[in-house]
Amino acid sequence: MRRAATLIAGDGIGPEITEATLSVLDALGVGFDWDEQYGGMSAVEKAGTPLPKATLDSIRQTGLALKGPLTTPVGGGYRSVNVALRQEFELYANVRPVKSIVPGGRYVDVDLVIVRENTEGMYVGFDRTFKVGNDPKALAQATSVMTRDGCRRIVRYAFDYARRHGRKKVTVVHKANILKATSGLFLETARQIAAEYQGQIASDDKIVDNAAMQLVINPAQFDVIVTTNLFGDILSDEASGLVGGLGLAPGANVGEHAAIFEAVHGSAPDIAGQGIANPAAQMLAAAMMLDHIGQLQEAGRLRRALETVIVKDNVRTKDLGGSASTTDFARAVARRV
Ligand code: NAI
Ligand code: MG
Fold first, then answer.
1. Ligand 1 touching residue 277 (CB < 6 A)
2. 10 Å Cβ neighbour count for 147?
3. Binding site membership of 271 for ligand 1 (Cβ less than 6 Å)
4. Rounded to an integer, what is the distance from CA 293 to the centroid of its chain?
5. Smaller CB count within 10 Å for the chain: N or C?
6. Three-class secondary structure of residue 275 per DSSP
């Protein structure tokens, strides 16, 4: 059965890694009816706006998108299209699996997933300065906002994710000892939901600073981590750093009505157009997309092929110490698929 999906190739290395990913999906024999749309810099060039209405309409209709990285101008210019998409479609769950693939790294047994709340907490945008006397910025204040419903849906998402993917434990990460209201509400809600899954999914909780330290000391103890926006932002970068960084890190932004899959990295303007970008993260994002629509076997085949190519065939792009081009890597994965 073919599934309609929106495709945004993106900016910089986006078109190269997207083409590589599509060739692997072809080899897998999975059928998407792609509706190709634009976003970011390439949309500005084509349509005069970084987020054209046609792109939004397409995602609204398909509820499913594979997206390349989009360039956001620094200091001025248009606001982040990624943030706009997250808000428009209420993509409340940011899901980032982190797994050791390349042998010889510092950690060889990491296999965890961070589920980060993507719409509330410290990132709601109440962040301002106040003038006192002559100093226009004598005081700065940020406000974190948490809702019981928001806590519920993200924690439930994490437990359901664990169940769907055969994972054993969810760790709730918080700072309820200090932030008794906001983080306290998150922890209280999380414990109630954890009780509903008793006997199916184990659960514990950790204070965020300890969790950050434990990630470095013994990352293998973690399975699924669920946490609030700011903590999730920091811990998910920390976790991807444990396994060798950006070239292998996929992510998903998921809501009730839409889900957008992408690599964690950006448009890498420094290497764009050279044919040397690592397409693995985008391929792993496509595997998450297959999981999401229930094609678990195909997703598994894609992941196993990719790991075999890196570990056994030793075909690696430059960022992983190899000399393979983007298309060499794609061909090797397609062959293994
Ligand atoms: P970046 O992730 O694009 O690049 C950081 C470094 O990692 C660069 O040296 C780059 O060459 C390398 N790198 C990244 N992906 C790679 C890959 N697949 N293979 C090999 N090397 C890779 O981050 P940077 O430079 O901070 O941002 C560039 C642009 O991307 C900015 O406009 C930023 O706003 C945007 N961006 C977009 C994201 C998205 O659409 N989800 C996420 C992060 C950044
Ligand atoms: Mg971040």
1. yes
2. 12
3. yes
4. 16
5. N
6. coil
pLDDT per residue as tens, the chain (337 positions)? 689 999 999 999 999 999 999 999 999 999 799 999 999 999 999 999 999 999 999 999 999 999 999 998 776 677 789 888 998 999 999 999 999 988 877 888 999 999 999 999 998 888 899 999 999 999 999 999 999 999 999 999 999 999 999 999 999 999 999 999 999 999 999 999 999 999 999 999 999 999 999 999 999 999 999 999 999 999 998 998 898 778 899 999 999 999 999 999 999 999 999 999 999 999 999 999 999 999 999 999 999 999 999 999 999 999 999 999 999 999 999 999 9
What DSSP string runs through 38-102? --THHHHHHHSSSS-HHHHHHHHHH-EEEE------SSSSSPPHHHHHHHHTT--EEEEEEE--S
- Between the CA of 136 and the centroid of ligand 1 the distance, in Å, is 35
Hey, which residues are catalytic here?
123, 175, 209, 233
CA distance 158 to 77: 35
User: Which tokens hold the place of 249?
Assistant: 């890190």
Q: Are strands 224-227 and 169-174 parallel, antiparallel or unpaired?
A: parallel
Which token pair is 140? Answer: 């700065």
Distance in angstroms (rounded) separating the CA atoms of residues 270 and 147: 41
Q: Can you name the residues that pair with 254 across neighbouring β-strands?
A: 93, 259
The secondary structure of 52-66, three-state, reads CHHHHHHHHHHCEEE
Gap from CA of 268 to ligand 1 centroid (Å): 4
Q: 70: Cβ below 6 Å to ligand 1?
A: yes
Relative to the alpha carbon of 8, which ligand is closest? 1
Residue range 277-329, pLDDT digits in tens: 999 999 999 999 999 999 999 999 999 999 999 999 999 999 999 999 999 99
**Length of the chain (residues):** 337
Cα 126 to Cα 119: distance, rounded to the nearest angstrom:
13
